Amino acid sequence: MRTATALTAAALALAGLTACSSTSGSGDTGTTTAAAGPGKLGKIAVAATDTDCKVGAAQLAAGTSTFAITNNGSKVTEFYVYAPGDRVMGEVEDIVPGLTREVVIELPPGAYEATCKPGMSGKGIRNPLTVTGEHKPLAADAKLSQAVASYKAYIKSQSDTLLVKTKEFADAVKAGDIAKAKDLYPVARTYWERIEPVAEVFGDLDPAIDARANDVAKGEKWTGFHKIEKDLWVTKDVSQDGPIADKLMADVTTIVAKSNSAELSPVQLANGAKELLDEVATGKITGEEDRYSHTDLWDFDANLQGSKAAVQALRPVLQERAADLVTTLDEKFAAAETTLGGHRAGDGWKPHNELSKDDLKALSDAINALAEPISRVAAVVAAK
């Protein structure tokens, strides 16, 4: 999740990105059509304000649906569909005031909650959402099933290394070895950022691991990577961080286990690819993500590679259904990687605060160019 201040800056820096994420006009906001069934993308309008969350349908037919969320408030908002236990079935973050964004979600029969989070904090404004009828999962398609299996293998490989590198990082913190911990910080986070779309499915574990100081609600304790980051680079004292390092390791261990056992819809792969680009747009470009260490480009690269892995898993389906889109995606991923590659420093990346405004604009342009075709992937996957 991101703060409103950071997102305002991101919106200014990446106006083109938000433009390509929006719907074609405000006429969609009155839509109340529920999904007619699996694979039929009826749009459910969600009108969000700072105090309200009006969802255009309380009952849906099982299958895939597109939610079109318009932010009529003054705060940046988010939209989630939660299953019991706050398991995230689908989400769209970073909806700045005046913007409409869409998300395609596959929902089997059951009880859910459609939720807006004005200010991107707290439990949000929740609406009961009932899904009924027969449901043939998208993953029943052999190629989509293989795509999910391929992506889960990628998640497994990345999460296995995340466990190893997080332990090395936590051990260095507990030993008081600040130099070693600084070296390991961006490495461990590389593997975290690559799996974050799956990790975010599991409620409060993600903020416990990855919250910035201003993401933490009043009265809650700040934990995770960024608390330790501040102590490494700003206070230069980690003598009290042993318990935080232990909790980070425990939380990462839990979320890795959950991620590896999670059942994923093919549209979650597509949405995850887009979410990782949004992470770049709202945190890495502005320097908000790693504001103390300035190691944002490590995360930028991890997000880009994680997004590419999700798209590559879906490639056989996309090639069959939208070959031109695959060609465009290949071109735009290559361009973004080339632009980012100009900021290599040895085996890592230059600090964010060493990049010029022109450098950041070039990176923004590359993400803008990739964001539009990525935003079309979910609809292609969900189509029958």
Q: Could you name the ranges where pLDDT drops below 50 across 5 or more consecutive residues?
A: 1-41
| Spatial strand arrangement across the major sheet | 3-9-8-5-6
Q: Helix/strand-derived class?
A: alpha+beta
Mind summarizing the main beta sheet? 5 strands, mixed
Helix-strand topology string: HHEEEEEEEEEHHHHHHHHHEEHH
Percent helix, as a range, is: 40-55%
Looking at CATH, the homologous superfamily of the largest domain is M75 peptidase, HXXE motif
CATH topology of the largest domain: A middle domain of Talin 1
Please render the helix and strand layout as text:
Elements: H1 4-13, H2 15-21, E1 43-48, E2 53-55, E3 59-61, E4 63-71, E5 77-83, E6 87-95, E7 100-107, E8 110-116, E9 125-132, H3 142-174, H4 178-199, H5 205-210, H6 225-235, H7 242-261, H8 266-284, H9 296-313, H10 315-321, H11 323-341, E10 344-345, E11 348-349, H12 357-375, H13 377-382
Parallel strand pairs: 1-4, 3-9
Antiparallel strand pairs: 1-2, 4-7, 5-6, 5-8, 8-9, 10-11
Helix pairs in contact: 2-12, 3-4, 3-7, 3-9, 4-6, 4-8, 4-9, 8-9, 8-12, 9-11, 10-11, 11-12
List keywords for this structure.
about 375 residues, alpha+beta, Immunoglobulin-like, A middle domain of Talin 1, four-stranded mixed β-sheet, 13 helices, about 50% helix
Structural account:
This protein has 2 domains: 4-136, Sandwich (Immunoglobulin-like); 140-382, A middle domain of Talin 1 (Up-down Bundle). Helices cover 51% and strands 17% of the residues. It contains 13 helices and 11 strands. It has helices at 4-13, 15-21, 142-174, 178-199, 205-210, 225-235, 242-261, 266-284, 296-313, 315-321, 323-341, 357-375, 377-382; strands spanning 43-48, 53-55, 59-61, 63-71, 77-83, 87-95, 100-107, 110-116, 125-132, 344-345, 348-349. The strands form 3 sheets. Strands 3-9-8-5-6 form a 5-stranded mixed sheet. The protein has a 4-stranded mixed sheet with strand order 2-1-4-7. Helix 3 (142-174) runs antiparallel to helix 7, helix 8 runs antiparallel to helix 9 and helix 9 (296-313) packs antiparallel against helix 11 (323-341).
